[in-house]
Amino acid sequence: MSKLSLRKHILTVDVEDYFQVSAFENIVDRASWDSLEHRVEHNTHKVLDLFNEHNAKATFFVLGWVAKRYPSIIKRIVDDGHELASHGYGHQRLTTLTQQQAFTDIEQSKQILEDTSGQLITGYRAPSFSINSSNTWIYDILKQLNFRYSSSTYPINHDLYGEPSWPRTAYQTKQGILEIPVSTLKLASKNYPIAGGGYYRLLPYWLNKQAINHFVKNEMQPYMFYFHPWEIDPKQPRFKQASNKSKIRHYTNLNIMEGKIVKLLECFNWQSVSDAYQEQITSNNLTKEIQCG
Ligand SMILES: [Zn+2]
After folding, report:
1. What is the distance between the alpha carbons of residues 188 and 59, in angstroms, rounded to a whole number?
2. How far does the centroid of ligand 1 lie from the alpha carbon of residue 153, in Å?
3. pTM
4. What is the extent of the structural domain holding 36?
């Protein structure tokens, strides 16, 4: 199958395990995480294999918790030429944290990722896109920690995240952080989620593709897609005590997601966030900091 155009879009992966998602945060005790079956290492290597097969480059927003336990993931992401970025440490939604707690979480993750990879980490994605008008102080923290960009907003109506009135295109915050919202489709003044995750899994492929093609045809900005390694793992353990809503959100179509990802890899050209927004996020100060250690 030939790719539809040479134009490149942005592929992102939020690297976390199946038990760390916000949908299960009230039923899975954090203290039990280490005793559960871990599947993130295997699943992430599978994602990396798929990307290699289709010559796709991506940004991997990795949890510090995962990086600390599975440095092989970090090595492979870097060796395969992808961009490594931060998804925070413990996957706590920022809307539930104090400023000090958020600082500690983000700093800890950055330190682990930098120590493990030997690279400066400049990109950040908040767990569950949890930056909204209640916590824009997060951008002060990101600035303080030398991040250059964030991809932490999803301007849609959703129970866990999103502020539909927020920008749909990349912009500089007043703190100098480039915020790059994941993609939405604007139809008749309403924003629809077309960036991936659960919506991509739940809706039929033809509808997803139609929405993406509409975006690509009508928008100057690159389309940005995201998914998680656990979404291509239909054999993951099930949490029977989860609510029906959470079960539908997390378990529907896990068995066909890999095939749907492959279709996207076949149909479009993919690059990382830092390649797509190279000019906006490159800074001499950052280069200097790396050299000075
Ligand atoms: Zn996440």
Report:
1. 31
2. 12
3. 0.93
4. 8-292
